[in-house]
Amino acid sequence: MIELDSVVAIMRRGSFRAAALELGMSTTALSNAIGKLERELGVRLFNRTTRSVSLTDAGRQFVDKVGPALRDIHEAMETARSQQDTPSGILRINSFAAAAREIFPLLLQFLRLYPQVHVDLVTEGRLIDIVADGFDLGIRTADLVPSDMIAVPLGPRRRYAVVASPGYFRTRDQPRSPSDLLAHPCIRVRLPNGALYRWPFEKGGQPIQIDVNGPITLDEVSLARMAVLEDMGIGFFMESDVQSDFAAGRLVRILEDWTPPLEQLCLYYPSRRHSSAAVKAFIDLARKFAASTTATA
Question: CB-based burial of residue 81 (10 Å sphere; 0-12 exposed, 13-18 middle, 19+ buried)?
Answer without folding.
Answer: middle
